Amino acid sequence: MCLALPASVVELLDADMAIVAFGTVRKRISLALVEDVSVGDFVLVHVGYALHKVSPDEAERTLKLMAEAGVLQEELEEVSA
Amino acid sequence: MSLDGRVSIDLLCEAGAVQQAVVTPPPPVELGPIVKGRPIAEVVAAIGSLFSVCGMAQSAAGVEAAEAALGIDAGRRTREARRLLVLAETLREHLLMIGLDHARLAGQPPDMKSLRRAMTLVPRLKHALFPYGDAFTPGSRVCMFGPEADEIAAEAAALAHVMVHAGKAPLGDMDRYAFAAWAGGESTIAARLVTPILARDWAMAGCPKEPMGDSHEGRLADTSCLARQGGEPLVRAFLSENGAAGLVARLAARFVEASRLPGQIAEGLAALQAARDGDDLAVPCQGSADAIGDRTGTGSAEAARGRVEHRVVLRDGRVADYAIAAPTSSHFAADGVAARSLAALAAATREDLATQADLLIRAIDPCVGYDVRFC
């Protein structure tokens, strides 16, 4: 189903792109749909786009839920592919 | 086989036609560990966070199931307010599909300014209707709201005007010829996607021999926007004689729905302003209790990609079981609508076949990535 994975923004790039970290996995994504993102912010990522910002607490809660549901590893494998 | 949360599609081809489409949906998410033994309000909130792409629809179905099991009547205004949030989310998802995917397929640059505005519609409307953040808490109530909600509806209409349909005549009322003329005008991204499809005579690409009706196929029913907009003259104009849908009927259904949603949201907000909870129609809760005291509730919502259905079982006030039926699982099941539609594709070249497959899959719209292989 429609899962979006929380990630922290570690580097802002040109053209609304950024490097985000899903734990130890780093990925280049688009920030074009979200305004006012800074390094250190958490965003929800779906098919290569940040959908919106989330608080660190919400990101942590969602990651915990995904781990408990057994989907976190699958999602991390997908983003690192 | 899908191992990583993607839809896997193998197209077995012969003489330029797909003979069989082997479609494997992503494995279902195992909800047990995150729901069992927990308070229902916590579970509904968790599901909204987990499935955040269609979080309004998932949350609306979840809270409806929860309230049914708890025997709570949310009241007509609150139910309607939640429905409006789902409509706003559906519009956002359609605009994202049109503005990103369809723009790419049409060779157009995405209109990121409009898309960024589209991303703000749902959180702003949610805050206007439920300023305390409790839209999907069992027993919550919608608040009286100010002009901001109407401004959001007006902004939604402006976005649909720019990205989907700029004309005054309703898109859904058009016939094939008026639609072709609209597409030829290339006034929006949606129109520009359709023009080459009609020019290449691909309108009926992927039209299966038999339609997939709601009653006919049960759990594999097509509940996408095609089902919701199938009665519109424009969509009917692109169905086969026996009512089956090809590529353009699916695209037309999305465009018609996206163009109508802002008006439906505005009408719903006006009705909310005029109504009071005391006006509630008596809507029976979809809940029941069994002999050992378990209480079961069901809920559903029409998400952008199709119907989501939730079923919860409460025991001693906590969740004993929870199940979700989601449209990507049914539409992209082995014998679902995607497999049947893809199996009807035929084209002069492999390149055309691949393009048709891509268009058709995105028209049916899985909420996850997908891989297509030709065999």
Tags for this entry?
heterodimer; A: 81 residues; B: 375 residues; alpha+beta; four-stranded antiparallel sheet; 49% helix; 14% strand
List the helices and strands and how they pair.
The complex is a heterodimer of chains A (81) and B (375).
Chain A: E1 5-12, E2 17-22, E3 25-30, E4 42-46, E5 49-54, H1 56-69, H2 72-80
Antiparallel strand pairs in A: 1-2, 1-4, 2-3, 4-5
Chain B: E1 7-14, E2 17-24, H1 32-35, H2 40-50, H3 55-70, H4 76-105, H5 112-129, H6 147-163, H7 176-185, H8 189-199, H9 214-217, H10 225-229, H11 233-237, H12 247-274, E3 287-289, E4 295-303, E5 306-315, E6 318-325, H13 327-331, H14 337-342, H15 350-364, E7 370-374
Parallel strand pairs in B: 1-7
Antiparallel strand pairs in B: 1-2, 3-4, 4-5, 5-6
Low-confidence parts of chain A? none
Biggest pleated sheet of chain B? 4 strands, antiparallel
The percentage of residues in β strands of chain B lies in 5-15%
Beta strand count of chain B: 7
Structural class of chain B: alpha+beta
Task: Please report the number of helical segments of chain B.
Answer: 15
Straight-line distance between termini of chain B: 14 Å
Largest interface summary: A-B, 29 and 35 residues
The multimeric state of the shown protein is heterodimer
Structure description:
The complex is a heterodimer of chains A (81) and B (375). With 81 residues, chain A is α+β, with helices and mostly antiparallel strands. Chain A contains two helices and five strands. In chain A, strand 4 (42-46) and strand 5 form a beta hairpin. The mean pLDDT of chain A is 86. Chain B has 375 residues and is an alpha+beta fold. Chain B has helices spanning 32-35, 40-50, 55-70, 76-105, 112-129, 147-163, 176-185, 189-199, 214-217, 225-229, 233-237, 247-274, 327-331, 337-342, 350-364; strands spanning 7-14, 17-24, 287-289, 295-303, 306-315, 318-325, 370-374. In chain B, the strands form two sheets. Chain B has a four-stranded antiparallel sheet. In chain B, strands 2-1-7 form a three-stranded mixed sheet. The longest helix of chain B is centred in the first third of the chain and has 30 residues, at 76-105. The two termini of chain B are 14 Å apart. The interface between A and B is medium-sized, with 29 and 35 residues.
